[in-house]
# Entry
Amino acid sequence: MKYEELDQFIKNSNYQYLPHLSVDCVVFGFHENQLKVLLMKMKHADKWGLPGGFVKPEESLETAAGRVLQERTGLDNIFLQQFHVFSDPDRSDTATKVDFLKNAGKAFLKDDWFLQRFLSVGFYALVDFSTVNPTPDPLSEACAWLEISEVKSLIFDHNHILNKALEVLRLQLNYQPIGYNLLPDKFTMPELQKLYETILNRPLDRRNFQRKILSYGILRQLKEKRKGVAHKAPYLYSFDLRKYQKALKEGLQDVW
Amino acid sequence: MKYEELDQFIKNSNYQYLPHLSVDCVVFGFHENQLKVLLMKMKHADKWGLPGGFVKPEESLETAAGRVLQERTGLDNIFLQQFHVFSDPDRSDTATKVDFLKNAGKAFLKDDWFLQRFLSVGFYALVDFSTVNPTPDPLSEACAWLEISEVKSLIFDHNHILNKALEVLRLQLNYQPIGYNLLPDKFTMPELQKLYETILNRPLDRRNFQRKILSYGILRQLKEKRKGVAHKAPYLYSFDLRKYQKALKEGLQDVW
DNA sequence: GCAAAAGTGTTGGCAATACACCCATGC
DNA sequence: GCATGGGTGTATTGCCAACACTTTTGC
# Structure
């Protein structure tokens, strides 16, 4: 990433974006039976952080988050869900930011746009791992998928944001279908089960899982089977998108 | 409300508060078997709206919402839950605000603080109706409880905010206990049931309701009964606060 | 004694759990 | 042919929904 780009970014921020406000995205992907999250290696700081960005004067938060993720993944129409605003006045400590500017060899003013207090709106995104093209932004030097349990200390309160996203995701599993955004078009029942097990971090019974997930009526069993695999070939499934959307809207089940 | 107060408010806003950002609160109360919401009659506009306010430079959103509600209800330590950020660029149309300033007999500048675009963080609050002392703010001339189904057209996107709050409340009923914040310390089983029925807008079976709610283990049956009522005297109950809090944290039940 | 509200109990059906057997494939 | 993973079936359990009878109180 070129010096001029970062320079440009910092210089233009204060009139390109709304002050005090950012969006941070927890992008979940599923690969080799692991739940992964997209992280950025920050420049001039030996830390990783969530992909994030700022909000333009005419954008909704959803548009802003979508734009940020389009830039970081190359994907349009990502499944995005706002889940919490992080507004602790001390959430992004100034020291870290001052260090960043210093290490970047930049002079800074006491009321630099970049140094102001930020509230951040957390979004989580579910994406098909295989279609993502991770791309760093002006503030970061690398961009990569990390396995959830291997994520160490992140910048600012990003660990907190990530944990909250996971918590919300697990909760939503109870009343929303999941998988359409995380899996390829065709997938097998064991793959879908692994996804659930990975998110819940707990094994599920094969047979009961199948019965339950089929009872939601959102799956279509295809005629084909997965080819070229060891052992018995599993059937391929795809989501019945209409019924899936309906389930998303109306919820899967109610207690009351 | 005196002219000077509104004048003062508008003049001071731009350095007292963060720009572009507001909080709006949907305050639910329960009275005479009805679900009520606290609304404000806006000055110089023949419309009602949600109690709201702005965020000071050193406040978290939760602190800001708590402060606003303390002023509007007289209560401290209100049960507050942030539920969504409303960020449509057109959510608060400028025309309405210009009208407001005109009707208030105020000159206004094109880049008036008050006329800028606002994102609003929605909070919902659950309060004990009987302890609230509704108090207008500088922008409103009255403050009153309205029955949910009798709420007409509100200012800006406040109907949308209210509906979203209701939706979230109904959803949370499925995995969180409710009632501690909405009912007096002692209450009867039929009263608690009416609360649930009112929120869900649907009748429930007496006997099944009792079994289910008791199975959560968050209620304590008291020795006393409600006195001075017609017909058979119902038992009084109170929440076991420790178990109630535990249920709030851990959730009532999981599908997976 | 009658109406209205509240306390308590029973039953049938469905759904979640736990578990077992058979089938296909690679080595 | 054996280990591994996948497809399918069943029996038991427990919970939920529907429903009935009894008790208390005011009039």
User: Anything to note?
Assistant: The first helix of chain B runs from residue 3 to 16. Residues 205, 207-208, 211-212, 215, 229-233 of chain B lie near DNA strand D (CB under 10 Å from a C1'). The beta strands of chain B are 21-31, 34-42, 48-49, 52-54, 79-86, 119-126, 140-147, 187-188, 219-225, 235-239. Chain B is about 35% helix and 25% strand.
